[in-house]
Amino acid sequence: MIDLAAAQDRCAQLLDAAKLHGATSADAVVRASSSEAVSIRLGKLEDVERSEGEEIGLRVFVGQQSASISSSDFSAAAFSELAQRAVAMARAAPEDAYAAIAGADLLASSEWPDLELEDVCEPDPHTLRARAEATEDAARAVSGITNSEGGSASFGRSVAVLATSNGFLGGYGSSSHSLSASVIAGEGSNKQRDYAYRTARHLADLPSPDAIGREAGERTMARLSPSGLASGAMPVVFDPRVGGSLVGHVLGAMSGPAIARRSSFLLGRLGEQLFPDHIRIIDNPHRLRGLRSRPFDGEGLPTAMRSLVEGGRITGWLTNLSSARQLGIAPTGHAARGSGGAPGVSASNVHLEGGSLTRAELISDIAHGVLVTELSGQGVNPVTGDYSRGAAGFRILNGEIAGPVAEFTIAGNLLSMLAAVQAADDLEFYRAVNVPTLRIDGMMVAGE
């Protein structure tokens, strides 16, 4: 895989070629990655996968006309052809009044923080196999587990570089270690499956294979012999591993392009009290070792920690340069960029701050409700906020978790759901979007 210095050099070469062929401005991005994964099933080697890829993307402007193109060929001849084609495409494109690279006054300085995204520890295939075996062994050792879908361990590295024709050149490397296990309990029609999975930038932050495997096994056993759930309005409690999806819907609705297209359920609601006043949601691109940490965004703008929701109110939209210009507001440093196409919008490491109640206290007054641990389906309308998803989890009776339930649907509207959300104090930071246990009263449940 190409290293950081070489990737920066290739971006500079491609920009030179774009200028030579008539581009008035341009930016170039390199994305490179390598990974290795080992999978074990029932104690035997199932799969060993090694992948490596490098791609360079070029976006050129000829006045207000633009085009994007990408290639995996890093030769000088390919760069010349790529730049020539991109400029020709731009000249044939319609003008876009909002598209442009960032002005020099908006670009990040070169003195960004070390976010500790890259681990020097790189496991060999034998070590990965041992981790995968230990993870699956721990899951299968849980009493009652009858079969396995496997355990896996993986490691990866990546490089991201962005360069612009007006002088920005930045890049960073990152690493990831992962462990997972998925197992089955029960026999015949009473079979259930569940999993556990963790990813961390550094091996030191990854739980042990025993811990991941045991979690997978215990989660699976807890789901055995599910019952049905009566239909009606009731409190719904979201486990942290699914509750982050609610924040994800909010982030999508806060996207500048969605607002500019008028296709967001949050349109016209900036400044309104949408959440209880104690709810606070933070976006922190500078979290050390964060899964979405980044020193600059996909257009070279600086990134910074920001409250997305403060006092129950949304503080503003998430924009790239194009959507910021359309909306007449300042860009927020949320541009996201792959190797091809124009920049999109993405938040970084996001968390909803925890409340003051423990999880047990949060559910203690629920006479009849449900704890959701799994969601399925895509029944969310981003324009209206209508929400309907399949679910599985556990019944809550008289303030206690009473047993597994499955094959039911939860429904509501995101605006009313957000207004009713309550948070426990069990927030942990290891996902890209982290939330504590969340409770929403009055949701409709369709079961038996």
What does this structure look like?
It contains nine helices and 19 strands. By secondary structure, it is α+β, with helices and mostly antiparallel strands. It has two domains: 4-221, 2-Layer Sandwich (PmbA/TldD fold), CATH 3.30.2290.10; 226-448, no CATH class. Strands 3-2-1-4-5-6 form a six-stranded antiparallel β-sheet. Strands 7-14-15-16-19 form a five-stranded mixed barrel. The chain has a five-stranded mixed β-sheet with strand order 10-9-8-13-18, with helices on one face. Helix 3 runs parallel beside helix 4. The N and C termini lie far apart (54 Å).
Kindly summarize this structure in a few lines.
With 448 residues, the protein is of the alpha+beta class. The protein contains nine helices and 19 strands. It folds into two domains: 4-221, PmbA/TldD fold (2-Layer Sandwich); 226-448, no CATH class.
Give me the secondary-structure topology.
Layout: H1 4-20, E1 25-41, E2 44-62, E3 65-71, H2 76-92, H3 125-140, E4 145-164, E5 169-185, E6 192-200, H4 209-222, E7 232-238, H5 240-253, H6 256-260, E8 281-283, E9 306-310, E10 313-314, H7 321-327, E11 335-336, E12 344-345, E13 350-352, H8 359-363, E14 368-376, E15 386-397, E16 400-413, H9 414-419, E17 421-423, E18 433-434, E19 438-446
Parallel strand pairs: 7-14, 13-18
Antiparallel strand pairs: 1-2, 1-4, 2-3, 4-5, 5-6, 7-19, 8-9, 8-13, 9-10, 11-12, 14-15, 15-16, 16-19, 17-19
